[in-house]
Amino acid sequence: MSLIQHLQTQLRQGETTSVALVEQYLERIRQREPHIKGYLTVTAETALAQAQEMDARRAQGEDLGWLMGIPMALKDNLCTQGIPTTCASRILQDYIPPYNATVVERLLQAGAVILGKTNLDEFAMGSSTEHSAYQVTANPWDVTRVPGGSSGGSGAVVAAQECVAALGSDTGGSIRLPASFCGVVGLKPTYGRVSRYGLVAYASSLDQIGPLAPTVMDTAIVLQAIAGHDPRDSTSIAAPVPDYAQALTALPPEQPLAGVTLGVIQETLGEGLDPHVRRAFETAVHQLEQLGAQVIPISCPTFATGLAAYYILAPAEASANLARYDGVKYGLRVPAADVVTMYQQTRGQGFGSEVKRRIMLGTYTLSRGYYDAYYLQAQKVRTLIRRDFDQAFTQVQALLSPTAPVPAFPIGSKRNDPLSMYLTDLMTIPVNLAGLPAVSIPCGFTPEGLPIGLQVIGPVLQETRILQIAYAYEQSTPWHRQVPPLVRDG
């Protein structure tokens, strides 16, 4: 039984209340946040009020489903009515949205209780959550190491049991990397499966919202609540939402992956792969074979070009999306003698170094004389990557790779080396370029006790398939039952 199912059963049987759950998680936040720093905003009063409402509605016989009264957290680039949404940037430090993102609306409609907003790399630009303007989040498994990024706050608070589950956003791996580094499950859905309305944009053709949770079943339950068509998002897919949780329970107990063919992406096993990550990945592949799957090598020749293409396309979109932050209508405004100087000083003081780097890179690649040489070429590479995946899926039902080439690295060790930092997204970026769904699940630990993630990639709208593969693996291994030292020590 997953954590959400366990807590919901207790709620339905009257063994606890939503108020009691919220108080329990708020106490954990008070105890652990000085070490983790995963939350930017804790909405204690609002959460207790929501919990009281859920308890009252339950007493009247209402049942809104698995998330009713369950405490959750939100990445702080999701708009929340009446609650600050900063994107971990000085330029939005006082911004309070007048509306909720669609995913927030859907969680509230499902009865979820929102504990607060989590830290991230500024405007979701980073792989370590060190590029926040406010604080550096620590990894609960080793507080001297990063939790991954950009949804590092969400990954850390789930791992530290400071909430039941959380939402993140994934532009090039920003859900899956924290899931891998923090030893939890993280899912990037198909582009368009979950509405982006109310997500503060980084790169609009790549961004996607998804859940981070302790188990695959918990992930499926949260995805069920947030997925589906939204007319307010022009890229939203109008397709029925399957019952993801039900699909997991439908797997046969013996040989649950019999008849499934999986492909190992050979381009992810080359130079730069940490030996402990390789060993854990190979052991995980063997375990999937024991569960009945046939595993074959698959080559995606353009996979390795994804990183270069991404760091042309994503900054180009960011330079356009972030042009709106000028100090005129909302957010930071630095007073100046004239409007041009005000723009310059506001953006100069409001944006951090990594955001400035990407804005300048994107503006350069879109400029006259360079558009064809860089941006247009990167779009062509993106098409080739998508074709490689399409070809692979004519041979296999899903693809496998390590989630990240390395385990969580020490805080500060890559911050001044952008290229080294960018390389941590090597395994995840091509998935975003192709708009595919992918899930990261725990598959082992390094000798130092750091989690390692396995990535399962599926065709468009095949979240059910990759969740079933992940669930079968999870149920046959002990990794999801391990907890960080911070949790073990109370």
Q: Supply the CATH architecture of the largest domain.
A: Alpha-Beta Complex
- Please describe the biggest sheet, giving its number of strands, its sense, and whether it closes into a barrel: 11 strands, mixed
The number of helical elements comes to 17
Helical fraction: 25-40%
- Give the strand line-up of the largest sheet: 1-3-2-4-6-5-10-11-9-7-8
Shape: globular
Count of extended strands = 11
CATH class placement of the largest domain:
Alpha Beta
Output the CATH topology of the largest domain: Amidase signature (AS) enzymes
Strand content: 5-15%
| End-to-end Cα distance | 23 Å
Whole-angstrom Rg: 21 Å
Spans of 5+ residues with little confidence (pLDDT < 50)? none
Can you say what the CATH homologous superfamily of the largest domain is? Answer: Amidase signature (AS) domain
Which structural class fits the helix and strand makeup?
Answer: alpha/beta
Q: What is the string of helix and strand elements?
A: HHEHEHEHEHEEHHEHEHHHHEHHEEHH
Number of domains: 2
Give the overall average pLDDT.
97
Structure description:
The structure is a single chain. The chain is 39% helix and 12% strand. The protein has 490 residues and is an alpha/beta fold. An 11-stranded mixed beta sheet has the order 1-3-2-4-6-5-10-11-9-7-8, with helices on both faces. Helix 2 (18-36) packs antiparallel against helix 3. The model has no long low-confidence stretch (mean pLDDT 97).
Name some characteristics of this structure.
single chain, 490 residues, alpha/beta, Amidase signature (AS) enzymes, 2 domains, globular
